[in-house]
# Entry
Amino acid sequence: MQITINSHIPTPHNAAKTGEIAPFTLLPGDPLRAKYVAEHYLENAKQVTGVRGMLGFTGTFNGKPVSVMGSGMGGPSAGIYTYELFAFYGVEHIVRIGTAGGFQTFLKPGDLVLAMTACTDSNYAYQYKLPGTFCPCGDFGLLRKAAVFAENSHIGFKAGSLFSSDMYSEYNALGPEQSWKPWAAMGCLAQDMETYALYCNAAYLRKSALSIVTNVCSCITGEQIPPAGEAMKNLEPMIRTALSLV
# Structure
């Protein structure tokens, strides 16, 4: 497989020019979370893209170049943005900083999930024409460093499998008994929508990726972290953990 770096810049979905995106990129789903990270954590941050409202910024953290860019919701959206970042902008490491709904009683709202792998109900891997089911993994080096930082910082976390679904669990017409509970029974820790596509792209393009998500609510009890006004602050343990990997 041959991927020609910098052959399609800017892309239809990213207005950044060559060299304006760092090799290490944080990827929240919400573009306003990208803006928050740029304003509160990066030095000399500059907006480098905003196509379709998907904001992206580049600055430095502890003197090292870092970019942060929104991915939108769902595997197809995250798949497009991460493919372009990896294949055309020379990004080597993408760390997703997202939110998820918890499947297990031992996972408390506010805890982090470090995604060792991702299961899915998506057809995303169909493109690879594999004679079976592909199970993509996160980068172990990144995961190990994130776990050490979280432990040393007394940040609650669990490492395991995420369930990346094409459907938001509360709106799934199948209901919990058929949509997410079977995945929970198999040990999946929580549900997001983007990790599977990210990990597939990283595997295909021989790059590294890690998904760190905050469990914002329990699918079992309905318990959740405080409301929107405090939402960004409640995600800061995840942001700090991700930035420890720079």
